[in-house]
Write the structure tokens for this entry.
Amino acid sequence: MTIDDVWNLNSFPIKQIYQQLRGVFQKVTWRKLVCNNLGCPKWIFILTLVANERIHTRDRLEKWGITNDTECPLCENAVESIDHLFFSCRFSQAIWRRLLKWQRINRQPMQWSDELNWAVTNASGNSIAAQIFRIVLAGTVYFVWQERNQRIFQAKHRASNQTNHSRCSLSRE
Ligand SMILES: [Zn+2]
């Protein structure tokens, strides 16, 4: 009897066990959009939360019994959800439409699940255009979320075409 017979290595299903365990940590399709993104760390952080559906939009807060107010603070005309904020809302849609045009991407803004699929298919590569798209997407998601928070918590309003002078700070404050 050889060692191979003892352990029956040829039929031992290591590969199947590995795949089964690995399934728990399945790679997400949008990983390259955040891991390979040259945008500000805080932009990428918010993009990751949104892609993971971990951002606390009002539709979710209502489900948890935290609020009764589900109105989108940006357009005041719809229930606030991830799909609405990015980019079905007329406020964020106006911004994203301009930025798509600026990148010479000839299409209309879509709701988040479709935007994410589009980005995974068209902007996961290493071309300059794909890299710029990832940065612009992260920045747009960040600034829309920031504007939403300012309206809710500080009652400050900016128009969708207003310039933002905030800079990306890499320092650890
Ligand atoms: Zn809205």
The chain has a mean pLDDT of 87. Residues 128-153 form the longest helix (26 residues). The pocket of zinc ion is lined by residues 72, 74-75, 78, 84, 89, 91 (CB under 6 Å).
